[in-house]
Amino acid sequence: MEIAYTCEDLGCIVRDQRKREGLTQLQLADFCGLSASFISDVENGKPTAELGKVLFLLHNLGLDLGVSERVANR
Description:
By secondary structure, the chain is mainly α. The protein has 4 helices and no strands. Helix 2 crosses helix 3 (36-43). It is globular and about 45 Å long.
């Protein structure tokens, strides 16, 4: 399991998965019905990328996004 603390972290996870699937940004965009520029924005960590579209993209890449409570350092 990979953990993303920033938009850039999430973008790297998306890029790595896309490459593991052997897809270009354009191919992934066509598959998902999104624009290639949106895929690029997400992969580059653009913080204003629309959350609903990001979740849709993750789903189409076979990725799940989870939220868990952070344990405080003691």
